[in-house]
Amino acid sequence: MRIIIIGAVAAGTSAAAKARRNDENAEIVVYEKDSFISYSGCGMPYYIGGEVESAEELTPRDPAFFKSKYDVDIRTLHEVISIHPDAKSVQVKSLTTGKVFSDVYDKLVIATGATAIVPPIKGTNSERVFTLRNINDMNRIKAYINTAVPKTASIIGTGFIGLEVCENLKRLGIDVTLIEKLPQITPGLDIDMSVYVQEHIEKNGVAVYTDTSVTEITDNTVILADGKEIQADMILMSTGVRPSTGLAKTAGIELGIAGAIRVNEKMQTNVPDIYACGDCIEHFHVVTGMPVYRPLGSTANKTGRIAGDCVTDGNLSFRGILGTGIFKSFDMTVAQTGLSEREAKELGYDAAVCHNIKLNKPEYMGGKEMVIKGIADKSDGRLLGVQIVGEAGVDKRLDVFVTAITFKAKVEDLFHLDLAYAPPFSTTKDPVMYTGMILDNAIHKGRPLMIAQELDELMGSGEKYNLIDARVVAQYEKNHVDTAQSIPHEKLRKAADSLDKDVVAITYCNKGTTGNAAQNILIGKGFKRVFNLSGGQKQYGITHKEPTL
C-alpha cells in the first residue's frame, strides 16, 4: 500500500509515524512545500523573546530523522498542486527545480494546515508588517528585531499568539500597543473574565485599544478608525487563521464550517480513500455535538495520529474537542474549556454562572488568587464550560474541569472528586470542589446567584430591591456598589426584621463567601427572593473599572 501525506508539520508527521507503527510494509511519502517540518509552532513567541535560545530547539526533527526512524520519505520544498481522486494521483511541483510530476496513492492524507488571515488594510505589504504562522515567519521577525532594533510595536488582534508575542516583545524592551476590533481582548473569554487579563496587561505597561480597527499602516504609524495615530516600528497581524483547503475544494472534497474540510470520526472525507487531519479540518464539540473550527497544535497531533491509524485499518476514532486553550501573559495564566456563557446562551441553554475567587493553596504556603468562572445548565446541572485566570495552579484545575466536562459531569459531582490535598498543593476543599458547590447551591439548593450585568439591569429597572453589603463597615466605606446599604454579617439577623421580605434582596461581600452566609440568613428568615452577587465586590468592581485609555 502506498500512502501519500500532504503536509509535514504536526498532523502530517503524526499521521506518518502512526501509519508506520501499524504497517511496516507500507510505502509512506510526505510532501511539504516548506523547508521546515515537525516544528513547535507554539514555542515561536518564546524564541522571538529570547526565552528559547536556539531556533533548532523548535525544529528537532528533519527528513533524515523520519527516514532513519520510520522509513518515511519526507520531501520538503515540494508542493502538491492538484489532487485527482479518479486516478488516485497527485500533481507535485518541486520548488527548487520547477519540475512538475505525478505520483499515485492508495490512501491520501491531507494535512495542509491553515494560513494567517491578513485583513485588507492599506499598508500591510510593508516589510515592517509580519504574521507568525511558521518558522520562516519567526525567523523574519527575529532578524528584523536584531537589525532594525524597533522601539515600538503594534499587535493587531488579541488571541493567544498575539498576547504571547506581546509579552516577549516587552521582555526585549519594546513598547507594545494592542489593538482589538471587538469590545474586549481575548475574544474566546467572556468579557467579565477578559477584564482581568486586560487589567493585568496594562499593569505591565502595554497600551490596549478595544472596539476599534486599523484603517491604514504608514511609515512607523498605525492609524485607527477614529484617526488616532499610534507609533509602531513593527506590526504583527494576529487576526486569526483560515484553513488551507484550496486543494481539497478543487478535488471535490466537501467543506464545512469556516471552509474547513468535513471529516467523520475516522478522519475520512466524502471522497473514498482520502483522509484529512490537523488545522485544515472541522471538528465537533463534545458538549453540543455541533461542528466547530478550533485549530490547535494538540488537536492537530491527535487527529494526525487518528488519520495514520485509520489509513492502516486501525480502530481509533475522534471523540471531539472542548476548545480547551491556555496561555501565559506575563505572570498570569489564562485558560478556558467548553462553552463560554455567551456561547451557551446563544445555543439556547438556560445557563447558571458563578465566579469563584479562591487561593490555589493556603495563604501561609504562598497561595495565589485565581478567578474561576463556571457555566452550567440549570435544567440538569451539567457542567458546560470553565474559564480561569490566575498566577498559579490554573492548569491543574483546568485539566480537572476538562475531564469532568468530557465525561458529562454535573456540578454536584465536583464536590465528590477525591482530589489530591496537602498544603503545598491545594486547599482542603479544592477550588474545583468549591466551584461545584457554588453552582450546586445555585441550581439545586435555592441559593441563586446574580451576576454584575443582572444587578445593573435590576438597578435600572425601577423595581424595588435591597442591596446588602455584608462586609465590615471599613470595607464598605473603602468601596461599595452604588445603592448598597451597609449591614455587616454579624448584625444582619437583627437588622433583617426591618427589611421588606417581599422585595428582591441581593447580598454581597468581597468575593462571595460571606455574601452566601448573609443570603442563608435572609432565606432562613423567610425572605422570598434572595440572591448572592457572584464574585462579590471584586468581580463587580472589575467589570465596572474605567478603561485606561
Question: What can you see in these coordinates?
Answer:
Helix content is 30%, strand content 25%. It is an alpha/beta fold and 549 residues long. It has 4 domains: 2-114 and 242-310, FAD/NAD(P)-binding domain (3-Layer(bba) Sandwich), CATH 3.50.50; 129-239, FAD/NAD(P)-binding domain; 331-444, 3-Layer(bba) Sandwich (FAD/NAD(P)-binding domain), CATH 3.50.50.60; 449-543, Rhodanese-like domain (Oxidized Rhodanese, domain 1), CATH 3.40.250.10. Strands 3-2-1-7-18 form a 5-stranded parallel β-sheet. A 5-stranded parallel β-sheet has the order 9-16-10-11-12. A 5-stranded antiparallel β-sheet has the order 21-22-25-24-23, with helices on both faces. It comes from Aminipila luticellarii. This is Dehydrogenase. One of its GO terms (molecular function) is oxidoreductase activity. Residues 461-549 form the Rhodanese domain.
Task: Describe the structure using short key phrases.
FAD/NAD(P)-binding domain; alpha/beta; 5-stranded parallel beta sheet; 549 residues; 17 helices; globular
Write a compact overview of the structure shown:
This protein has 549 residues and is α/β, with parallel strands linked by helices. The chain is 30% helix and 25% strand.
Strand-helix topology:
Elements: E1 2-6, H1 10-22, E2 27-32, H2 44-48, H3 63-70, E3 73-76, E4 78-84, E5 89-94, E6 100-104, E7 107-110, E8 114-116, E9 129-130, H4 135-148, E10 152-156, H5 160-171, E11 175-179, H6 191-203, E12 207-209, E13 214-218, E14 221-224, E15 229-231, E16 234-237, E17 241-243, H7 246-250, E18 274-276, E19 283-284, E20 291-292, H8 297-310, E21 325-329, E22 332-338, H9 341-346, E23 351-359, E24 369-377, E25 383-390, H10 394-406, H11 411-414, H12 431-444, E26 449-450, H13 452-459, E27 465-469, H14 473-478, E28 485-486, H15 489-495, E29 504-508, H16 513-524, E30 530-533, H17 536-543
Helix pairs in contact: 1-8
Cofactor: FAD
Family: Belongs to the class-III pyridine nucleotide-disulfide oxidoreductase family.
GO molecular function: oxidoreductase activity
